[in-house]
Amino acid sequence: MKNKKVLITVIIVLVLIVAVVAGILILKPFDKENDEKKTKNETISSETRDDKKSVDYEEVLTAFAEACKSEKDMEDFVEEYVDFQSLWAAQNSDEPSDLADVYNEADASDYEDEDFIEEITDIFLDFVSEDVEIEISDVEEDGDFSSIGIDFWKAVKFTASSDDEEIEMAAIFCDDKVVIIATPEEIDTLRELDDEDEEDGDDEEISLQEVEIFNTQFEDYEGTSVTASEVKALLDLVVTSNSAYEEDGHFVSVYTYNVSGFDSSDLNDACFNEDVEAAATEISALKSKIVSSKTYTISFVKDFDGFIEEVEIEEE
Questions:
Q1: Is 14 within a domain?
Q2: Which residues have CB under 8 Å from 229's CB, separation 6+?
Q3: What distances in angstroms separate CA 267 from CA 162, 228, 276, 286, 297, one per listed residue?
Q4: Are 22 and 189 in contact (CB under 8 A)?
């Protein structure tokens, strides 16, 4: 598990599968009606759903919180609450309105592929920590997603707390299955999407150029056996970039793995809050722990527009 605060790591992103559109993950589990394998799923539509079905959202969210305590519990959660057919459909949908058709046309051989199932399960297992204690409260339904043609989804707001931390979160459900757990802002963004609202070719080209220019400053440092001086140079670039791009929202977080003598908690907080000044201070502290006798592995995580948004540093 990443060296971030447990609650933040577990709750903010439940599963990083694919950006279907505009940076929102479309992960759509549906209710399994029996244990037999099906080569095709029944047609999904609001007309065939049981809209009167009572769903205990708090029970499902609490099950996830409990599953974070062990790999076995999380594997059981995945088996019960995750629909691999829906996940496969999400990866292969161009627009939100396409998802139901792709789901209905999926063949069991696609989503029951052993490697695919292992990939999804491993992602959920990444959020397991034996020390985690998460409580779910203030669960309430918050409308649907008919504005983007997915009227069988329901939004649910809730509060996740651990020790003295509290985070306001939201989830999407399809009946009693989790679709996505994210921030309320991400849920609102999804509701505002419009399949017909596309940029023209010139705007798309400019966007690609912006991504390339932004990423180029960091990309030479990616890889293994990176020297201490190179790591420090990369960290200096991050500080400079965060200051220069503060108004554009292209904040680059820094997360560490096993860097000797470095307590990353304050840096994690600064990055989570996208606090440019505090992050710069903590990055300076990190630089003092990057030593010439060690080498490091540098990797990047990109946002859904392609911009580098995380630098991950692991001591080798």
A1: yes
A2: 292
A3: 19, 19, 11, 9, 19
A4: yes
Clarify whether residues 122 and 173 are in a common domain: yes
CA–CA dist 1, 11 (Å, integer): 13
pLDDT, tens digit, for every residue of 162-208?
Answer: 877 788 888 888 778 777 777 888 788 777 765 444 444 445 454 78
Query: Both ends of the chain: CA-CA distance in Å?
Result: 17
Q: What is the domain extent for residue 304?
A: 204-315
Rounded Cα distance, 88 and 99, in Å? 10
φ/ψ (deg, to 5) at 26: -100, 95
Q: Which residues contact 184 (CB under 8 A, 6 or more apart)?
A: 157, 168, 169, 170
Full DSSP string of 29-53: ------SS--SSPPPP-TTTS-TT-
CA distances from 116 to 111, 122, 138, 162, 247 (A): 7, 10, 34, 32, 39
- Global pTM value: 0.50
Count of CA atoms in the C-beta half-sphere (13 A) of 257: 13
pLDDT in tens, 222-245: 999 999 999 999 999 999 999 998
What number of CA atoms fall less than 13 Å from residue 235's CA on the CB side? 26
Which residue has 């992602």 as its token pair? 123
- CA–CA distance, 82 with 72 (Å, rounded to integer): 15
Residue 137's H or E segment, with its range, is strand 135-145
- Which of 191, 218, 233 terminates a domain? The answer is 191
Let me know if residue 155 belongs to a domain.
yes
Contact 28, 103 (CB under 8 A): yes
My answer on whether 90 and 221 are in the same domain is no
Treating both helix axes as pointing N-terminal to C-terminal, what angle do 201-219 and 228-244 enclose, rounded to 10 degrees? Answer: 140
